[in-house]
Specification:
heterotrimer, A alpha/beta, B alpha+beta, C alpha/beta, A: alpha/beta, Rossmann fold, 2 domains, seven-stranded mixed β-sheet, five-stranded mixed β-sheet, 12 helices, globular, C: Rossmann fold, two-stranded antiparallel sheet
């Protein structure tokens, strides 16, 4: 089986889709000869030229607007926001334009754009380059929010997002770019809104997003050695959410832990907990649903502090134990 | 002529108050000239002339609070006069609402708590009733009432307790702060159970000493129903030894008249006929207890359930309107139901709507037994075998008679002892003197 | 107008316009005003739920802008956009239905006054956000360029939008990529209550074009032919691949910003002064139309809007069961 890094899987997806579909073009800061701040667009400009690999000034509102305007007039733009943090400058175009155009116009327009952006901490980039802002977008009807956790999903979900007729916020994770995994050579899609059971287990359901899926998998290995079988679920698309596999799993296990990197308050975990509580899974809960999330602070610069700000393998292991043993 | 209306300036604005007229009747104005100044709850605004013209027919004066869209004056063209049908009288102005109303939150809380707002005094501005007022009133109304003891339990534990009719108050919780978890309910045994017996029962047997039979859905459902009935309905039992001489004679006569291919009328059919007839005068035995509504429903139809033993369980198909049918017909229906029950061909309608049940185990040689009521019915009759016994006749001499023991189980919450006794008395009459049923 | 010695026929001929075309433009201005007056009346009568931004006084700006454009060009409109829609050729019936929130409206009653759009005719919608359409124009321009057509896109915004950050990002991007965008700033002197005198330290907003290396023109927005001329020049430039132009049209709204405006920031005399340069009366006078003919044409325009109102009034409300439609494709 061929292995690729998460970054190369994304790069390959862009190569293939730009070859296959003339409407697709990339736009963003330093995505041309520089290859993108994290190298995701490396080599594209040599293949497709600067007309379809558009280097922009440092103008995040402009990038978002360029995606909206070209998408609504027949193109399939793939924008890149260099760090997810900077998308704060694009918010008006995304929230008030991209998300609403179709609805405001009575369902008579489509905005088939993808805006890629790396989120997450762990690189010592401190408070303004480490945000996990996915829930800002989850809260906006009309946007789809995708967070791949593996190279396979990264390629398949990016191609599905480009194929989709809606504006898709595509959130990558800086620490995942170098992770490796099986990636088929051909073009394939992983459907949006298709929640995946990543690992089966009977004792507790762990719903994790992005890099936390990987940490949960490692935690599950350790817990299995102690006889605790963890079921791990990756929503992959946060909105619109395919909630049924989560509910089915909680009915089976009777316990749930949500793990994400974004701060806990107002985070996606609250939404997941509510979905479970509102479902038939309620009657099967044998412990309070818990959330393991980023502390309610900006990401600190200091390495030790940064490490302790977001969930890690050890913290997942100990939280799972506490729940399964009925200590919480 | 152009009507001037009190314009609407804001989404939710309903009225505006006239602050000043800036022009008077007869004045010539141009389109766009301010005519009057009005104020809404927030701001002063000018009402402009929509067209050129001469102001006429002013209907509102300073201080009037005027509903929006109301005609307040007219603009005439030169030489034009106000038509007869123009509204010229003063605008009817509604008085502003006074205090005593409730805030929207207070109104909602009152509705939730069932509080009559007219009995609550308001502490808000202008006497408005606030949420605190309503909640304070509600608490006062419940004065002296203490909240029921709350049990800490997980939703899963509560669901299982519900399914097994376990009272969570009796269960010890092993979770944090004594929270009852699923496993606690599964391990729970009612206090009345004999401790030694329970331990013996759960002592593991060596492998190979037993055959594992999975608990089928039917088995579990029967178990749950009967357990619930036995635990919740206080059963009272009434036994009667009934002389079946007359019934047997009747059956001999009746069966003699049947063609050879017709099934013989059974004791069960005869007993069913007698029970149905008797129930007509004993509505309490033909009733259902609806606990959730705190009601006893005296049923107008008499539908008798007949317990049928199956290979893997028990089912109680129902003969509808049994009091309207003769023994022959009842016999056919019971036979048909039993055949279909054993071949798994009953329809949902065949097993629903029962108002009283009969279980006859006489064919197995059982002399007498008691049955558990089939909820929500109020009673069941257990019929033993009919056997020859010596009984004293009118003169005290022993005679041999066919005697059948019947045991009635009734739900004491619905049926009083005397009521049940009278039922048994009438049932005996119907069986020992079946001609009574012709009367 | 531009030249006192020439007859109006000469002036039209010089621009390749027939008298019929000129009359049609006058008629469109009258329909715009009639639409706006009807809108105001409907609101005052409580028949419309929601706010609106009236463009009475700005009719020449709308009609002059759309005159040199082709049907396959794109329109990105402002919140004060009824006039631009009508000038673009939108159906007053469907506009009125949208204004009244009816299912038959351009946006099935979901958009309302501030979001009238008709993607089919490349009208990409009015925008409720000040400067909201300007970054989108960059994308439309890019799309035109990538598809290698000779379409242009007009991005209309007000004086207030020129002080938003998005304005700067977008004009710069359109300039460096030579995108075929007409940046059309309708300077009606006030951003709500903020006057241009207080909000800018440049004499003309069009001077800002210099910062992006593109042409900037200021034009009398109440002079229909002058607006048409300057837009035509910018359109030619854009179609030829020479990039965007920033046009500033000086005009004035007679009505308040929206329906709850007390207009304390300006004087009635100022309003009257602008009304003396009323775009409709000016163009009618230019075409030497007598007042009787003018009134007849105004009545005709009013009738078009009355018919639109009848259509809208008789149209059905959206069914609540369809409430979730149109969020996702």
């Amino acid at each position: 089986m061929r292995e690729l890094t998460y970054k190369d899987a994304l790069n390959e997806a862009l190569f293939q889709v730009m070859k296959a579909d003339e409407r697709v073009f990339c736009i963003g800061e330093d995505i041309g000869v520089y290859g993108g701040a994290f190298g995701v667009t490396a080599g594209l400009i040599e293949e497709f030229g600067e007309e379809r690999v558009v280097d922009t000034p440092i103008s995040e509102a402009g990038i978002a607007g360029a995606c909206v305007g070209s998408a609504v007039t027949g193109m399939r733009p793939v924008g890149e926001i260099q760090f997810m943090d900077f998308v704060t400058i694009s918010m008006e175009q995304l929230v008030l334009q991209a998300a609403k155009i179709r609805f405001m116009f009575g369902g008579k327009a489509t905005v088939p754009m993808v805006l890629r952006m790396p989120g997450g901490s762990g690189t010592g980039a401190a408070a303004q380059h480490s945000e996990s802002l996915e829930n800002w977008f989850v809260h906006v009807p009309g946007l789809k929010v995708v967070m791949p956790s593996s190279p396979y999903d990264a390629k398949g979900l990016l191609l599905a997002a480009i194929e989709d007729d809606n504006p898709v916020i595509f959130i990558e994770h800086k620490l995942l770019y170098k992770t490796k995994g099986h990636v088929p050579e051909e073009m394939y899609t992983v459907p949006l809104s298709d929640t995946k059971v990543v690992r089966e287990g009977r004792d507790i359901t762990v719903v994790a997003t992005s890099i936390m899926v990987n940490r949960a998998l490692e935690a599950a290995e350790q817990l299995a050695a102690e006889g605790i079988e963890v079921e791990i679920i990756d929503p992959r698309t946060l909105n619109p959410l395919d909630e049924e596999p989560i509910i089915r799993s909680v009915i089976k296990t009777g316990r749930a832990l949500i793990v994400h990197e974004a701060v806990k308050t107002g985070g996606y975990g609250g939404e997941l907990v509510s979905r479970i509580m509102e479902s038939e899974a309620f009657d099967y809960l044998d412990a309070p649903i818990r959330r393991l999330a980023g502390l309610d602070i900006p990401i600190p610069y200091n390495r030790t502090l940064e490490y302790h700000t977001v969930p890690q393998i050890e913290s997942i292991v100990s939280e799972v134990k506490r729940i399964v043993r009925g200590e919480v | 002529m152009k009507e001037i209306i009190m314009p609407k300036f804001g989404f939710t604005q309903e009225t505006a108050e006239v602050v000043a007229w800036l022009v008077g009747e007869g004045d010539v104005v141009e389109a766009g000239d301010p005519l009057l100044e009005v104020t809404t709850d927030k701001i002063n605004m000018e009402v402009e002339a929509p067209v050129d013209g001469i102001l006429a027919g002013v209907r509102v004066k300073v201080g009037d609070v005027v509903p929006v869209t109301e005609i307040i004056a007219y603009l005439l063209e030169p030489g034009e006069s106000l038509p007869q049908d123009a509204l010229t009288g003063p605008v009817v102005v509604e008085a502003p609402p006074t205090g005593g109303t409730a805030t929207p939150v207070a109104a909602r809380v009152a509705a939730d708590l069932g509080v009559d707002l007219t009995k609550v005094s308001g502490s808000g501005s202008g006497g408005r009733i606030t949420r605190q007022d309503v909640e304070g009133f509600a608490t006062g109304a419940k004065n002296g009432q203490t909240p029921a003891e709350k049990v800490r339990a997980t939703p899963a534990a509560r669901r299982i307790a519900r399914e097994r009719s376990v009272d969570l108050v009796q269960v010890a919780g092993s979770g944090p702060r004594g929270r009852i978890q699923e496993a606690d309910v599964l391990a729970f045994q009612p206090a009345a159970a004999d401790r030694g017996l329970v331990e013996a029962a759960i002592e593991p047997l060596p492998a190979g000493d037993y055959r594992v039979v999975p608990m089928t859905n039917m088995r579990r459902s029967i178990g749950q129903n009967l357990q619930q009935s036995w635990q919740q309905a206080p059963h009272i039992m009434f036994q009667a030894d009934i002389d079946m001489t007359a019934v047997e004679a009747l059956l001999v006569k009746g069966n003699h008249r049947l063609s050879p291919d017709e099934p013989k009328i059974t004791i069960t059919a005869a007993v069913t006929r007698a029970v149905a007839w008797t129930l007509q005068d004993h509505p309490w035995l033909n009733s259902r207890l609806v606990e959730s509504e705190n009601e006893i429903h005296l049923m107008s139809h008499i539908n008798i359930g007949i317990a049928v033993a199956l290979e893997d369980g028990l089912i109680v198909p129902v003969v509808k309107d049994a009091n309207m049918k003769g023994m022959k017909r009842l016999n056919e229906e019971i036979r048909d139901l039993a055949v279909r029950a054993r071949s798994n061909q009953l329809k949902p309608d065949d097993i629903s709507g029962g108002t009283f049940s009969i279980s006859n185990l006489g064919m197995f040689g059982v002399d007498r037994f008691t049955a558990i009521i089939n909820p929500p019915q109020a009673a069941i009759l257990a019929v033993g075998r009919t056997k020859s016994m010596f009984v004293p006749d009118d003169k005290g001499q022993p005679v041999v008679r066919p005697i059948c023991n019947m045991t009635l189980s009734a739900d004491h919450r619905v049926v009083d002892g005397a009521v049940a006794a009278r039922f048994m008395q009438d049932l005996r009459l119907a069986l020992e003197a079946p001609e009574t049923m012709l009367l | 107008m531009s030249s006192a010695v020439n007859t109006f026929q000469d002036e039209l001929a010089r621009r390749g316009l027939s008298i019929e075309q000129a009359h049609a433009m006058l008629q469109t201005m009258m329909e715009i005003r009639a639409f706006e007056e009807m809108a105001e009346e409907l609101f005052a009568r409580g028949l419309v739920h929601g706010t609106m931004h009236l463009s009475i006084g700005q009719e020449a700006s709308a009609v002059g802008l759309s005159a040199p454009l082709r049907p396959d060009d794109y329109l990105l409109n402002t919140h004060r956009g009824h006039g631009h829609c009508l000038a673009w050729g939108s159906d007053p019936k469907l506009m009125m239905a949208e204004f009244m929130g009816k299912e038959t409206g351009y946006c099935r009653g979901r958009g309302g006054s501030m979001h009238i759009a008709d993607v089919e005719s490349n009208n990409l919608g009015a925008n409720g956000i000040v400067a909201g359409g300007i970054p989108i124009s960059v994308g439309v321009g890019l799309s035109i360029k990538l598809r290698k057509t000779d379409q242009v896109v007009t991005s209309i915004f007000g004086d207030g939008a020129a002080n938003e950050g998005a304005f700067h990002e977008s004009l710069n991007m359109a300039s460096i990529w030579n995108l075929p965008v007409i940046y059309y700033c309708e300077n009606n002197q006030y951003a709500m209550s903020m006057s241009v005198e207080r909000a800018f330290n440049v004499e003309k907003i069009s001077q800002r074009a210099a910062a992006y290396g593109i042409p900037g023109k200021t034009v009398d927005g109440n002079d229909l032919l002058a607006v048409r001329d300057v837009v035509a020049e910018a359109v030619d430039r854009a179609r030829a691949g020479h990039g965007p132009t920033l046009i500033e049209a000086l005009t004035y709204r007679y009505k308040g910003h929206s329906k709850s405006d007390r207009q304390l920031y300006r004087t009635r005399d100022e309003v009257k002064e602008w009304q003396s340069r009323d775009p409709i009366l000016r163009f009618a006078a230019f075409l030497e139309i007598d007042s009787e003919t003018r009134k007849a044409k105004q009545a005709e325009a009013r009738q078009v809007i009355e018919d639109a109102l009848t259509f809208a009034t008789e149209s059905p409300e959206p069914d609540v069961s369809t409430i979730l439609e149109g969020v996702y494709a």
